[in-house]
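Researcher: Next sequence.
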Amino acid sequence: MAVARPGAPAWSRDVAPIGGHVGRIDHYDNPAAPKPNSLVPSANALVTNDQGEALVIRRSDNGNWALPGGGMDLGESIVACGVRVTLEETSVTGLLGIFTDPKHLLECTSDGEVRQEFSVVFLAAFVHGEPTPSSESSEVQWVDPAQLAGLTMDRSMRFRVGLWPKAGHLPHLG
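Model: Next structure:
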């Protein structure tokens, strides 16, 4: 993976080979990034359990850790999307924020799609079930908030996760 280092340009490019090819590249403020050609609303969920741990997944397309999430389908609400992407094992309890930074682009190398960021991140409580990996995640783990900083994440996901757990937090809008 290549990321911008302190003192490097203001842009970063996270790259991780998946099965011999790159599945997803996250660009931030990168003048060399391709122009966006898509805008897909998506939902993530910061799911917590009774022990105060957060549910995280290791993405299959780039190897980074992230909150469970996915794109919204036609005919569904963003809240229904948030529930669907967490396999209906959670109860949405609030809003962490809305993230629409046009400097953050998601490049899908398999089909040339370049998405501008548009993500709603919900707060959710774990209800039941056994979180398991899927075709989009190679690992699923419960992580103590203090351990989140040690996980490899894209800068935008790290920002989102960093908003929690802040007392008196108002949803991020931006």
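Model: The longest helix spans residues 155-162. The two ends are 27 Å apart (CA to CA).
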